[in-house]
Amino acid sequence: MPVVNRINAFAEDMTAWRRHLHTIPELDLECHETAAFVAERLREFGVDEIHDGIATTGLVAIINGQGEGPTIGLRADMDALPIHEATGKDYASTRIGKMHACGHDGHTTMLLGAARYLAETRNFSGRVALIFQPAEEASGGAGIMVEEGIMERFDIAQVYGIHNMPGLEKGAFFTTPGPFMAAVDEFHVHIKGKGGHGAMPHDTRDPVVAACGIATAIQTIVSRNHLATQDLVVSVTQIHTGSTDNVIPETAYINGTVRTFDREVQAMVIRRMQQIVDGQAASYDVSAELVYEVGYPATVNDPAKTDTAIAAAGEVVGEARVHGDCGPDMGAEDFSFMLEKRPGAYLFLGAGEGAGLHHAEYDFNDEIAPIGASFFARIVERAQPAGGK
């Protein structure tokens, strides 16, 4: 079965929706205009219920199928990024310093396309919960929606999501059972020494060399403190200190990211990082404070639900274009909060060649929107067939 014909029939409408959303990017939890546009389309489609104001601007829409059955959740993120767009498109962002540089406008469009089809056909049992989520990029809107009780409130039994991926084969699906995307944490190290003249270092307690020592030592956590076959990334990404060539500064700052899949590995990193910061600070005679912020958990696909997703994707694009054991990715995704509460699966949908995610020249490939919408439709019809067969 190829892309659902009915969905393909309104592909031009989907392109128009997506490009409109692209012109009005909104950040974090403040997706007011985007949510209003989504709600307006959903009312036009004739969904049965719309519940808004969840996680500030998130909403959940319900479509009832044929007869009794469980509720399946489908999720799309809506927020943009604080990036100045450089695409030059005639539908480019109208908001200075904001743009849809990750394709969430496309994700929203794919779920709207599926909603239109499912509301028309209702060829499934039970209910579909369409989850439109703000704040994937910043505040973890998925976690907020989960904390506000959407899984229990709407009795969601399983949940699925998609992310477009430039650089991967256009229209192909990629996923894997079990751990698929990493947990993401960030760390900050604030160092305080004693500043002074660059020609008289003996009268100072130099935070610059301390920062260099701490940064170098932190990088040994991966190479010397964990099993090489386990996935772990520790990256120092910022060091800020000093203002001129002949002054030893008073303070220094280090920042970075940690990516893990295993909670024991994460705990080891936190422990070792604290030991390194404390020990290096003492050796350089400075004070140093580690602030370690635990972020999104790992995105872990349920194996059985992944099999269901792979089968549904294969019906849309053909089995040869579904890569169901592509291995884990060290990126992170707040859909993980939903997968912690309910079994489900997350997939990448190849977008073909083009600028990468979070790039000022990125633009969602509208050709894949009917494919993503068709996947959402087929996963519902496969997971919850009409008549309960």
Description:
- With 389 residues, the chain is of the alpha/beta class.
- It has helices at residues 5-9, 11-23, 32-45, 104-121, 141-147, 150-153, 207-218, 220-224, 263-284, 303-317, 335-341, 369-383; strands spanning 49-54, 58-64, 71-77, 127-133, 156-166, 173-174, 178-181, 183-192, 196-197, 232-241, 247-248, 251-260, 287-294, 299-301, 322-323, 344-352.
Write the layout of secondary structure elements.
Elements: H1 5-9, H2 11-23, H3 32-45, E1 49-54, E2 58-64, E3 71-77, H4 104-121, E4 127-133, H5 141-147, H6 150-153, E5 156-166, E6 173-174, E7 178-181, E8 183-192, E9 196-197, H7 207-218, H8 220-224, E10 232-241, E11 247-248, E12 251-260, H9 263-284, E13 287-294, E14 299-301, H10 303-317, E15 322-323, H11 335-341, E16 344-352, H12 369-383
Parallel strand pairs: 3-4, 3-5, 5-16, 6-15
Antiparallel strand pairs: 1-2, 2-4, 6-16, 7-14, 8-12, 8-13, 9-11, 10-12
Helix pairs in contact: 2-4, 3-4, 4-12, 7-9, 10-12
